[in-house]
Amino acid sequence: FPVAAPERPAIVAGSHDPLLDWAIRESGAALPTLFDGSLDGLERFRDGQAAVAAIHIPEAAGARWNVGAVQALGPARDAVLISWAKRSRGLVVAAGNPLGISSVEDLAGKRLVPRQESAGSQVLFRQLLERENLTGEAVEWSAPAARTESELGEAVRAGRADAGLGLVSAAGQSGLTFLPLVEEEFDLLVCRKFYFEPPFQTLLAFAGSALFRERAAELGGYDIAELGRVR
Predict the structure, then answer these.
(1) Residue 126 has pLDDT above 60, yes or no
(2) Angle at CA 214, nearest 5°, toward 213 and 218?
(3) Does position 1 have pLDDT exceeding 80, yes or no?
(4) How buried is residue 63: exposed, middle or buried, by Cβ count under 10 Å (0-12/13-18/19+)?
(5) What whole-number distance in Å separates Cα of residue 92 and Cα of residue 121?
(6) How far apart are CA 206 and CA 223, in angstroms?
């Protein structure tokens, strides 16, 4: 007799998103999280270690997002990719932008906040820097790597770095200046079976509430018009 595939643990892995993190707690969905970057989440999903992977994986410096990475999992992935939000991502710099940074090109010789190598934002940051030929010693990476948007903002606020590639919320929560660069697609890769389970349906239902919309507007930089759309 064929052996049934083991149940995936009800874990949301992948990229840290302030709005998603808050919604999981506020909705009462009771979903444990393991936020350690988009690539880590995709790997855990592939290996059956998570029921949901939150991802924003850029292709060609942000020309396309996530779909290619999911297709690479193969036809047996048994999953659906749904939109969570479009997010404005850009340079987070000191309040008032005293160094006069206005573009990626201006990052030459600057101290930058890295994210962990498995983070989609770090993949994008390296792509953007390479497009301006800013590699090797052209920039300086601070330490340690920021594992959340809040940690990124704190590194710039504390003066450990001159800039980082973050979200509006990373700048706003630390009183910093935000310079928009790209609009990224932040999606949820969900096991088809788990999509219909109460925890995930609770999260989706909450995402349709007025309270959720108010929080998205408060954080800033979110477009949630297509939340839930199958990508």
Answers:
(1) yes
(2) 120
(3) no
(4) exposed
(5) 13
(6) 16
Q: Which residue has the tokens 């990224």?
A: 184
Dihedral (CA of 224, 225, 228, 229) sign: negative
Residue 42's pLDDT is 95
Q: With contact defined as beta carbons under 8 Å apart, do 101 and 107 qualify?
A: yes
- 214 neighbors 14 (Cβ within 8 angstroms): no
Q: Which of 10, 6, 14 has its CA nearest to residue 188?
A: 14
160 and 92 Cβ atoms separated by less than 8 Å: no
> How many other CB atoms sit within 10 Å of the CB of residue 202?
16
Structure tokens, 17: 């998103």
- 200 pLDDT band, cuts 50/70/90, is very high
pLDDT on residue 6: 64
Cβ neighbours of residue 3 closer than 8 Å, sequence gap 6 or more: none
pLDDT reported for residue 5? 55
**What is the reported pTM?**
0.91
